[in-house]
Amino acid sequence: MAYKTIVEDNIDILVAGAGLGGTGAAFEARYWGQNKKIVVAEKANIDRSGAVAQGLYAINCYMGTRFGENNPEDHVRYARIDLMGMVREDLLFDMARHVDSAVHQFEEWGMPIMRDLEKGSYLREGRWQIMIHGESYKPLVAEAAKNSADKVYNRVCVTHLLMDEAKENRVAGAVGFNVRTGNYHVFKSKAVVCGAGGASNIFKPRSVGEGAGRVWYAPWSSGSAYALMINAGAKMTQMENRIVLARFKDGYGPVGAYFLHLKTYTQNAYGEEYESKWFPALQKMVGKEYLDPELSHATHRPIPTCLRNHAIINEVNAGRGPIHMVTMHSFQDPHLEEIGWHNFLGMTVGQAVLWAATDVDPKNENPELTTSEPYVMGSHATGCGAWCSGPEDISPPEYQWGYNRMMTVEGLFGAGDAVGGTPHAFSSGSFTEGRIAAKAACKYIDDGKAEGIRVSDATIAKLGEEVFKPMEHYKVHRNEIVAGDVNPNYHNPRQFLDRLQKLMDEYCGGVTVNYMTNDKLLSIGLKKLKIMEEDLEKIAAKDLHELLRAWEVKHRHRTSECVMQHTLFRKETRWPGYYYRGDVLKLDDENWHVLTVSRRDPKTGQYTMEKAPLYHLVDVDKPAAAAE
Amino acid sequence: MPTFVYMTRCDGCGHCVDICPSDIMHIDTTYRRAYNIEPNMCWECYSCVKACPQNAIDVRGYADFAPLGHSVRVDRDEEKGVIAWRIKFRNGEKDLNLLAPITTKPWGKFIPHLKDVPAPSSEQRNSQLLYNEPKYIRMDDGGLHTLESNGLTLQKGVQY
Asked: Would you tell me which CATH number, out of the four given (3.30.420.40, 3.30.70.20, 3.40.50.150, 1.10.510.10), belongs to the domain B3-101?
């Protein structure tokens, strides 16, 4: 290897990936570990990395207990309803009871949070959302993380977690490479907080060519959170629960503020309300407990995100597309019009660009909506992630085996997309989870649980070879061809990404098949993914940038495999509108009111699937009654 | 809408290279100026546009769906704590100027250094509290919510 090996030894807490979860972890770790060595590894620049890189116009998870608005359990019930029951309520309650303290600190640090001038409370967009001028959200929390960390390694892409050789199933750090210098970085650490991201770009996007970057979730979200943890042998949960978003067409601009604050609504191409006509059949599919439009109307009980997608998908398939967002009424109010534009500029500038390019003035016409390709993540209206231990004062025995937010690998903690079963955390909740994980990680170390971790030089050398192999492979085979990218001995990262996206789309329920899959398709898909894994040994990177892309696509591949395994395991259609199992087009509470848990054996590559029980919050004084 | 760089404005300083979350702003070895090496991995996040001291970087909507002839420009000022946007439509009929705050306080001055704050007690360590809690949860003296305090229990099985 031509590059230097740089070993950072004796780290107490390594934060792998510094988005909102990672920055929360780095920040908080310093308080509980004032003498500890805290190091951050981030593949981009911490000031603008992760899903919040371009900013946010809302904080979507804020209880407002201070203003008497909501209690944590209210949010848990909301997330439960939205995810058709499949959530970790202990983790959600824990996140919700802490999240406000993060938001109040953000305000103190300088975050402009809008106020309701009459009430004095924060300006609400919806029951859980508050409105902010969050263009600098990420630089702000990055500053907090930088104040706490001993060192921040920007542009270091973590490729593998390091496993302890003294004790089975214990983490000992991570390795990766510097995207600029090409140096090989080894982090020996007593505990690791995985703050890496979920996955965009594993399903074929609707966009083609240049527009392929216009994905809903950031294109740099490469599923690294999942791949790192799966490869380390951590158990995963709810990985089948991918999300499909109903968004403004092509630009994927957010609709939350439009629905909730600007009071816009949707209609079909002929100006008709379309949702209600799909609900009777849908109710037969999922049961009245999950879809009850009358009750929802009377009590403002939300209709799950996936079920609203279902109505859009079916209306479009019936030939009455496109679906429009009716903005023309609201946008006559100049104040609301301004908010509508600010909303995009604060978090999805591309949508403003698209409307400027296509002369769409929402004051004069109602813009089109569409349903996106699926995404795999764990902090929006979906809960993919690792199977984590919960807080000791809340969690039932099946959910608790030690430290809060610790995975089934000792010393490995997570936050944000990494943690499974905790949807609707969003930015503030992810930051909060990072804080919770960091405190627990400090305790783990203080309790002496990380004593004697050992990583041999042989392991470091072996992983180093693996990290740079795509560049070696390129060098060896490049000169067999005259020029170009067609080579019988390798594919480049883009070619692999295209192959992965096509495969996931067609076999695992992407847009071109209307989100439909079945057991047969999934089994074929798994075989193809296995072959692709063999071929990924022959991925070629011509430079360091392509080496980054090579590792991203390897991480996306591992994530996809786990998604496919979980989708095959859950023999029901739990979330119509996210995906459909054509062979079992019904929600099945008798057999599948459970969380799905997988583990990939790092030695054999075999997956073991199991069901974990679901626990729901109920009021003590009426334990037998339905909670809502 | 991938980014592009105006030849006459870029001086090759590399701020965009340094900040791009997607690692796609690189310096061209012939011209010694920045350019977007991988437009189909550009999220139009404007991080590079905001970071460019020469205003040399702009955005042209994605070729697969955005017609030509539009403009969305930005000027972010940390000192003043504001960001200014200008949106121009293709047909020239709409020209919006929008201004928003990015911070309410002098940049970075009010973010604590937790190394310097009093260390937590062992009681705090063994509690469920995080830094600045319980105070910052409700900005009063109230404690942390628990299942007990809220009259709740976790029950296994099918509940709605």
From this structure: 3.30.70.20
